[in-house]
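User: Let's play a game. I give you a shape written as tokens, and you guess the letters that built it. Ready? Here's round one.
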């Protein structure tokens, strides 16, 4: 199976002024594409070539780091694009607001806790909102391209939302002002998509 870059459901400039068109284009066509190219290169002429992404993840302990990192990079970014929407184009539903408030105190407290988690990590960490196996919501972080779906994750669960805080996600617009990027990120979250994922098992 050869993996291909998924198209975005919005234009590169759709998230301006929070995320600029150039950053989106580079992030999508260079960074995400690179994960896909490296994944296709790593699986070529190996038995893994016959597997779907889900099958690759299911046997993650038996596959090479190159396949593992690039497969997750591909999956994480495909997911990330769906979590974004034009500024204030979606709202938090009452059901979602209740779930977030029950777990974190309030929606603002949830945003604050996830932002703090994102800003307190250095290097290649990812910060996630996950739904754990008992149905509760939790914030956790994973190194590199790892994911809370992996059996090696400290907190395992279904990813609901993650925030890309690598420099390539914001540097053109924000340079060293990562905190400002994290703060403004909330204005382009696709709350409809987040609500849908939370509703899933
Ligand atoms: Mn990225």
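Assistant: Ready! My guess for every position:
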């Amino acid at each position: 199976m050869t993996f291909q870059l998924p198209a975005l459901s919005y234009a590169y400039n759709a998230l301006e002024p929070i995320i600029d068109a150039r950053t989106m284009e580079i992030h999508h066509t260079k960074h995400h594409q690179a994960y896909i190219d490296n994944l296709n290169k790593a699986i070529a002429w190996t038995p893994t070539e016959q597997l779907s992404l889900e099958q690759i993840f299911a046997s993650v302990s038996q596959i090479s780091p190159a396949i593992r990192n690039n497969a997750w990079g591909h999956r994480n970014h495909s997911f990330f694009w769906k979590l974004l929407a034009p500024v204030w184009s979606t709202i938090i539903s009452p059901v979602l607001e209740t779930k977030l408030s029950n777990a974190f105190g309030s929606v603002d407290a949830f945003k604050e806790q996830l932002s703090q988690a994102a800003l307190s990590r250095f290097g290649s960490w990812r910060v996630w909102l996950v739904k754990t196996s008992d149905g509760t919501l939790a914030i956790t972080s994973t190194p590199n391209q790892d994911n809370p779906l992996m059996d090696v994750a400290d907190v395992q669960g279904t990813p609901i939302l993650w925030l890309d805080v690598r420099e390539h996600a914001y540097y053109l617009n924000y340079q060293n002002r990562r905190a400002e990027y994290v703060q403004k990120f909330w204005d382009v979250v696709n709350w409809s998509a987040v609500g849908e994922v939370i509703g899933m098992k």
